[in-house]
Amino acid sequence: MDQNRVLRFLGQAETCRVLLLMVLVVAFVLGFQYLELSPLSIVLPGNGTVSELRESNDTTKSVENETFLASQEAPSVLKPYNSSTEVLKSFEDKFLNNSPKTETSGQSRGNKTASSPHSLQPKIPQIRKKHRQRIIKKPPLVVISITQMNNMILKRHSDPNNSLAPRWGSKVDKELKTARDKIKNAALVKKDDSLYAPLYHNISIFKRSYELMERTLKVYVYSEGDRPIFHQPEAIMDGVYASEGWFMKLMESSHRFLTKDPTKAHLFYLPFSSRILQQKLYVTDSHNRRNLVKYLRNYIDLIASNYPFWNRTRGSDHFFTACHDWAPAETRGPYMNCIRSLCNADVGVDFVVGKDVSFPETKIDSSRNPNGKIGGNRPSKRTILAFFSGNLHGYVRPILLDQWSSRPEPDMKIFNRIDHKSYIRFMKQSRFCVCAKGYEVNSPRVVESILYGCVPVIISDNFVPPFLEVLDWESFAVFVPEKEIPNLRKILISIPVWKYVEMQKRVLKVQKHFMWHDGEPVRYDIFHMILHSVWYNRVFQTF
Ligand SMILES: *[C@@H]1O[C@H](CO)[C@@H](O)[C@H](O)[C@H]1NC(C)=O
Ligand SMILES: *[C@@H]1O[C@H](CO)[C@@H](O)[C@H](O)[C@H]1NC(C)=O
Ligand SMILES: *[C@@H]1O[C@H](CO)[C@@H](O)[C@H](O)[C@H]1NC(C)=O
Ligand SMILES: *[C@@H]1O[C@H](CO)[C@@H](O)[C@H](O)[C@H]1NC(C)=O
Ligand SMILES: *[C@@H]1O[C@H](CO)[C@@H](O)[C@H](O)[C@H]1NC(C)=O
Ligand SMILES: *[C@@H]1O[C@H](CO)[C@@H](O)[C@H](O)[C@H]1NC(C)=O
Ligand SMILES: *[C@@H]1O[C@H](CO)[C@@H](O)[C@H](O)[C@H]1NC(C)=O
Ligand SMILES: CC(=O)N[C@H]1CO[C@H](CO)[C@@H](O)[C@@H]1O
To answer: Of the candidates 439, 489, 435, which has an alpha carbon nearest to the alpha carbon of residue 466?
Structure first.
């Protein structure tokens, strides 16, 4: 805390000038590079310059297949996570064997921390210090690897004990079960024109599930809910919470998926914005969110008394999307059975993989151009090994900067905040873009890296990446445990060039799953992928 505070103050005062100077120097060098006037070329670790790197090309395989670092010690392969601890086991069991809560009323907010499966506590505003100082979370005691998350999804999807049986049957249950059977017996797809097989856990399953969603899925949107917190996507079409507005807008205007007849609906959408909720109802410096929680709770009371659908499934076929940091805490209680699509997807808090859906955070600068200046350099023109820039939020970034911002290696560009133009340029010129958690696990950098063709390096223990249900994230991103930050460079340079080139290609292939489209959404785009994850989890929790 102390260190962090000091760093933050420093960051605003003296370091500012130093940083500006650094940025100017870097920009200068890069500017020269860009214009190809520079006699310098950025030297790669070990031996040889970047210009020797070639992209995938049959004639240059031997060059590609050299590692970035020829000279240093044997490459340290990414260490497997330590999964042997008892605490992990019990933690996993807790999530896997816990049936969803059956109370629609839920527990009181003040008590939920008592039942938290481990000591990772969410921020509670009441105990915040003065001056809007945020409580900085501590590192999690238990780290769940991506492989373990994948296994947790499979387990949850094959165990009826984890799902709530509806109180009474309906035609839609049968349709979901039929879809489930069809997906499980999907015809083998080896190659597909629009899907690149290495990106998926199982392309046959994904393709079948997606097509069945297109053919089958009907979503009902409740008309209840006052503007602007409900039903007003226009209010939140840009900024870091813009995914809320974009999803709401496309969902509420979907010709394909909407139904006006709730008895035909497989899913019920609760159309609110967690960001606008905070903007409209949070009393500045009140350190109290009870009114926000109450507001959302009243909404559930309203729809549960006006319609039979909530009571039928106790909310488990209802979903919402929410990107604000507070959304997980605000949607406990009655919302816990819902499919909660959260940007702050932290499996160490109460995000339930296989039920909840990781909602991609997309930073939108202009709502007319939601995907930004998509693009970036070819691998051989990516002269920087790793790039990060950002405010010193949370506990991970100070460690990252402490370790890497003032080291002699010129290929590590790890900064405090820099200007937006340079930020984008670095993303387009770097091989790896570090997505380090801020106050919470999520960061807009994950999608940014992908859109700029930079292989994401996720340093955020217990973050559940978007579309994990179907995407094989480890095939195109690197997950570095927080405790391995000192080894960051070693880990990255140990990735052979041929492997890097392959990962980068996959990053380009996965871009379409992270792009918004105005008007009519496009097949396999981010809107459809979010909806697909919700559909997929619903289908596989219907027994
Ligand atoms: C760099 O490579 C050259 C030949 O390609 C070799 O002679 C030289 O020793 C290498 N330097 C280092 C530091 O490995
Ligand atoms: C591979 O390299 C050859 C010779 O340098 C070149 O003619 C060809 O266009 C390259 N192919 C690709 C896919 O870059
Ligand atoms: C895993 O953790 C346990 C207990 O913390 C420790 O005894 C064991 O040596 C660790 N294993 C590895 C491979 O690090
Ligand atoms: C939390 O709930 C438990 C039982 O559900 C109760 O015994 C305990 O007093 C509650 N704690 C608080 C702080 O309300
Ligand atoms: C589900 O619960 C029942 C009864 O509690 C138990 O007998 C059964 O083994 C459980 N199934 C699984 C897959 O754990
Ligand atoms: C993918 O799923 C299909 C359908 O369940 C199955 O037949 C196939 O073996 C799976 N492929 C892989 C690579 O797991
Ligand atoms: C749903 O259940 C709640 C609480 O059990 C009850 O108050 C409400 O009237 C029920 N809704 C309907 C439509 O029956
Ligand atoms: C492109 C290419 O030739 N890649 C090869 C590099 O080396 C690894 C193993 O050392 C092979 O598996 C790749 O096929």
So the answer is: 435
Distance CA 308, CA 248 (A): 24
Is pTM, for the whole model, over 0.70?
A: yes
> Which is higher by pLDDT, 442 or 12?
442
Distance of alpha carbon 182 from alpha carbon 205, whole angstroms: 9
CATH 3.40.50.2000 domain residues, the chain? 379-514
Domain 379-514, CATH class in plain words: alpha beta
Show the ligand 5 pocket: residues with CB < 6 angstroms: 159, 161
Instruction: List, in sequence order, every residue forming a beta bridge with 358; answer none if it has no partner.
Output: 342
What is the distance in A from the centroid of ligand 5 to the CA of 97?
A: 9
Helix 171-184 to helix 203-216 angle (10° resolution) is: 150
With bands split at pLDDT 50, 70 and 90, how would you rate the model's confidence at 16?
A: low
Q: Which ligand sits closest to the CA of 472?
A: 6
Percentages helix, strand, coil for the chain (3-state, rounded to 5) are 45, 10, 45
429-448 residues labelled b (16+ CB within 10 A) or e (exposed): bbbbbbbbbbbbbbbbbbbb
Q: In 10 A of CB 245, how many CB atoms?
A: 25
Residue 67, SS3?
Answer: strand
Residue 287's pLDDT is: 86
Task: Find, among 437, 475, 271, the residue nearest to 349 by Cα.
Answer: 437
Long-range contacts of 485-489 (CB under 8 A, 24+ apart): 485/396, 485/399, 485/400, 485/403, 485/404, 485/459, 486/403, 487/76, 488/386, 488/400, 488/403, 488/404, 488/412, 488/434, 488/457, 488/459, 489/45, 489/385, 489/386, 489/404, 489/409, 489/411, 489/412
Q: For residue 389, what is the enclosing H or E element?
A: strand 384-389
483 C-beta closer than 6 A to ligand 8 = no
User: 99 CB less than 6 Å from ligand 3?
Assistant: no
Q: Which residue has the tokens 């709770």?
A: 297
Q: How far apart are CA 9 and CA 11, in angstroms?
A: 5
CA of 111 to the centre of ligand 4 (A): 6
Contact 284, 303 (CB under 8 A): no
pLDDT tens for 289-346 read 999 999 999 999 999 999 999 999 999 999 999 999 999 999 998 999 999 999 999 9
